[in-house]
Amino acid sequence: MHNVFQTTLTKSVSFSGVGLHSGKNSKVKILPGNEDKGIVFKRIDLKENNLIKANYANVSSAKLCTTLENSHGVKVSTVEHLLAAVYISGIDNAIIEIDNEEVPIMDGSASEFLKLLKKAELVNQRKKRKYLKIIKKIEFKDNTRQISIEPNNSSLEVNFHLNYKNRIIGKQQNTVNLHNDKLEDVFNSRTFCLFEDIEKIKKMGLAKGGSLDNAIVVDDEKILNDNGLRNDKEFVNHKILDLVGDFLLSGYRVLGKVTCHQGGHELTNLFLRKMFRENLSFKVIELEDFFASNQVKLKQSHKLAANA
Predict the structure, then answer these.
(1) Element (H, E) at 174
(2) Residue 75, phi then psi, degrees to nearest 5
(3) Where do the domains of the chain lie, and which CATH numbers do they carry?
(4) Can you tell me whether residue 233 is helix, strand or coil?
(5) Which of 62, 71, 81, 189 is the most exposed place for a label (fewest CB within 10 A)?
(6) Cα(162)–Cα(35) distance, rounded to whole angstroms?
(7) Which of 21, 81, 238, 265 is the catalytic position?
(8) Please, what's the largest Cα pairwise distance for the chain?
(9) Is 21 a catalytic residue?
């Protein structure tokens, strides 16, 4: 069942590790947050202008990862896996303190973040959680990439299609309901890349902290990681994980069905920007409002059946 009230952590949790792209070590502490504040990053290595709201409008780059930036140019990058863990955990409000510019990559999935967040447990706050309920289909296309969302009353559902020329990755598709399905295969799935792309990425000044400990590397027709894949659809499942983290930047729990072909961080952010510009496609509700409207519809359908 969905939560009626907003939630936060009962206590703080901490972790540290290396950034995938910067190669820099950073320490992170997640603290309880106040109602209606959402998820806020705080760069504690800086004394001023160091707060960055986790919001789609603050995405300054979506190249290989999601980077948030405030109006003073202060950034935090590779936020998507941690935000996906926050979404899956059911946390609405938290302050994420970090002493560097990039969230640690850990093992390349959201698994370690979730383990830490479960230790903290959650507490209900006084104010009600607001949900973004999709009422009209909206879509965005960019050549072969496309993403859409349509009404789905029960939860956020993601149908993702992946199509790589590489035979190991190939064509993969999976549909996941964030409320009804078991999510282990999603949050355990790691980021991945082709071996042939590593040098290109490094020339861009990225992947300085990348290794087989935090990413799947595919070389032609073999996987270089000793233990292979964690699940049969790990590639597409990781893309679903990324999308969930990026969707938290909407500022709401979303009730809708997403269909995405060949998507990524950039496509998701462009889509969210379009969706909020064309705000006739959704309405913001509280859960009791949603249940009340459903009960009215149910009574009306019973009356129709009785009169038939």
Answers:
(1) strand 171-177
(2) -120, 160
(3) 5-129 (3.30.230.20)
(4) coil
(5) 71
(6) 38
(7) 265
(8) 71
(9) no
